Amino acid sequence: MHETIGRSLSAFELGEVQRHANMAVVPILWPKSGGPDYLTMKEALEKAVLVVTEVSEGGSVPNLKVANKGDAAKAKAFLAEAAACEEKIYDSVGMGKEYRYSGPRLVGSALAVEDAVIHTAFFRVTESEQAGNMATMNRRRSFRV
C-alpha cells in the first residue's frame, strides 16, 4: 500500500456503533480539524437557517415547503466557482456520460443521461487533496457489483 494512503487510513477514528433492527453502522471519523464548510440538515434546522413547513394549513402529502434562510451570496459564489471548473467528459459505465470537474479549490462530478442530470456533487478540497486521473471505463466497469 502507498505510504500516504496507509498513513491516512491509520489516522481515521471509529465512532460509536449505531444500531437499528438487524443493521449496525460504525462511523469512520477524520480526526483533523478544518472540516467541511456546510451545515447538515439537522444543524440548519436547529439554527433556523432551514425552515420546513406544510404547503398549506391542511397539509399536502408528500409536499413540504422548505425555506433556506442561509447566506445566498455564499451559495451563489460556490456555484459560480463550480461553473468555472475545468470539465472532462467520459463514457459512463452504464448509460449517459460522466462529467468530472476540477478547479483550484473544488472537485466535482455529474452523471447525465440524454438531457437529464441524474446526479451531481461538488466538494471543497485543498491542493494536496486533489487526486490524479479518473479510472478508464473498462476499469470502472470492473467495480460493478
Helix content: 10-25%
Distance from first to last alpha carbon = 24 Å
Strand order in the largest sheet: 7-8-9-10
Mean pLDDT: 77
Q: Compute the number of helices.
A: 4
| Radius of gyration based on Cα positions | 20 Å
Gross morphology is extended
SSE pattern: HEEEEHEEHEEEEH
The proportion of residues in beta strands is: 25-35%
Q: Which spans of ≥5 residues are poorly predicted at pLDDT below 50?
A: none
Helix- and strand-based class? alpha+beta
The largest β sheet comes out as: 4 strands, antiparallel
Number of strands: 10
Give the structure's gist in a few sentences.
This protein is α+β, with helices and mostly antiparallel strands and 145 residues long. 22% of the residues lie in helices and 34% in strands.
For this entry, give a set of tags.
145 residues, alpha+beta, 4-stranded antiparallel β-sheet, two-stranded antiparallel sheet, 4 helices, 10 strands, 22% helix, 34% strand
Structure report:
It contains 4 helices and 10 strands. It is an alpha+beta fold and 145 residues long. The protein has a domain at 71-145. The strands form 4 sheets. The chain has a 4-stranded antiparallel sheet with strand order 7-8-9-10, with helices on one face.
Protein topology:
Blueprint: H1 3-11, E1 13-14, E2 18-20, E3 23-25, E4 28-29, H2 41-46, E5 50-54, E6 64-68, H3 72-83, E7 86-91, E8 97-102, E9 106-113, E10 116-124, H4 137-141
Antiparallel strand pairs: 1-4, 2-3, 5-6, 7-8, 8-9, 9-10
